[in-house]
Amino acid sequence: MRHFLTALLVMILTAHIAIAQSQPVLNLELANKIADAAQEKATSENWNVVITILDQGGNLILLKKMDGTQIGSIEVAQLKAKTAFEFKRPTKVFEDMIKGGAVHLNTMPITAVEGGLPIFKDEHIIGAIGISGVTSVQDGIIAEAALKAVSLN
Amino acid sequence: MRHFLTALLVMILTAHIAIAQSQPVLNLELANKIADAAQEKATSENWNVVITILDQGGNLILLKKMDGTQIGSIEVAQLKAKTAFEFKRPTKVFEDMIKGGAVHLNTMPITAVEGGLPIFKDEHIIGAIGISGVTSVQDGIIAEAALKAVSLN
Amino acid sequence: MRHFLTALLVMILTAHIAIAQSQPVLNLELANKIADAAQEKATSENWNVVITILDQGGNLILLKKMDGTQIGSIEVAQLKAKTAFEFKRPTKVFEDMIKGGAVHLNTMPITAVEGGLPIFKDEHIIGAIGISGVTSVQDGIIAEAALKAVSLN
Amino acid sequence: MRHFLTALLVMILTAHIAIAQSQPVLNLELANKIADAAQEKATSENWNVVITILDQGGNLILLKKMDGTQIGSIEVAQLKAKTAFEFKRPTKVFEDMIKGGAVHLNTMPITAVEGGLPIFKDEHIIGAIGISGVTSVQDGIIAEAALKAVSLN
């Protein structure tokens, strides 16, 4: 009985340590699903956009530029995703803050325009999506539709 | 005769497909004409400016700094052309949006000052012009005069 | 009938002029095909790489990072594609030149490592592919396999 | 008489100071002449290059990209001119030094490839020319032909 309890304790502690030392990741398969959902939504609305996905380290793992999208969106889509990832919030939050008077935030290394969303799983940030190409409100609609299409939790 | 007409039709359709998969370009000859018109307008007004022309890939193919123009305009003229090219619209559009309250656009990688215009041919963007050196309104007047001087469509 | 043929001839010549002043493009559909072929080759060899495709303007229109690829390859794959596009030649050409003694080329803004190839169609450069993740020879094998899988001419 | 001599002395000294505080300049007219000579030489050889001219402050005052020149030459031509200007010597000097064993110069912020030449007038450096597009030896031939075509001293 004593040995059994000791073994149980070891198992629980090991599991706990294992959980504490790992984080969920965003792999290419999931990124493809998110990007496909984004492209499907954009196509259904006849919108052209650049779609970017960052992983749990904030690294670009997927980028697609739909035909006809303005060239500037290649950089902007990445910047929106970067801002959403680095500050764990939708870029629209910063947009609203600046529009609401917090104009000093223009000095921050952020892109405060709707269309960037962090991606969470079990309360961990596992990446971000950045959309650019149409109006920022439309960019935001695509980003939200893309994340809704996959079940992360 | 019938075979001849069929062959002709095939040739026309083939050419049409080739056009659909290609885009018009802005060569040095056209860039020179646009820049000469810009310089002529500037000279007639006794203004000094830097003139920049980007091609269909957004690459700098012509730059001229008129004597006496402030040094900062060498970079600004290029940035205005870049913004007009990358976002397919006059830089004044962004200037007006930010002046009108969309101050969060200050976080975008754009130069939101009048004087940059995209260049279109048959609904394709084939380049951009950027002017800097005098007031931004005057820069804009030169850019417009330059594009009006050449017939693109 | 004569007027009809004349009209046809004019149409054909007009189309021809339009083609002469334009260049072929690399769209997302073609980029997807090339990237899929690259990923298939990499998977078959059990290699992990980042795949990047630039379009006819040298702009990034597709990027995919296969799971497990080293993070540095995200930038290197883009740099290889950039070098291949900007100098219209395989990056291996520069690698061989530098290895062969032209060490002053290390001061050039290039990435002289195998794995980047320009993409041509009808003698026009329409883009480039950049691969990074395994050895540079293996990166080059993937790039070549990817372009061979699509018929461009 | 005394007042006259004093006045004369003041005039001479003022003139002397004025000369000491000025430097010859490279204006757009001269830059155009140099660039035209470069383009003429390139055309006569059926070569395509980017031509760049810097002024006495090292600022870009003229850039022309001949049709068909590789995109990378837009940056490289500027870098060659910058190196020639900043170090008051032909870029080939650095190329030869590195090829000759001084490989540590690869850590310098220079572009050590033939095709960049400083422009002197009365022992003052008044600018630089940078050529890129064909082989570096050919780039150098164009740069030399361009400067020979204008009489600077």
UniProtKB/TrEMBL annotation, chains A, B, C, D:
Keywords: Signal. Residues 1-20 form the signal peptide. The keyword Signal applies. It holds the Pfam family HbpS-like. SUPFAM superfamilies: GlcG-like. PANTHER family: PROTEIN GLCG, SLR1406 PROTEIN. This is Heme-binding protein. It comes from Belliella kenyensis.
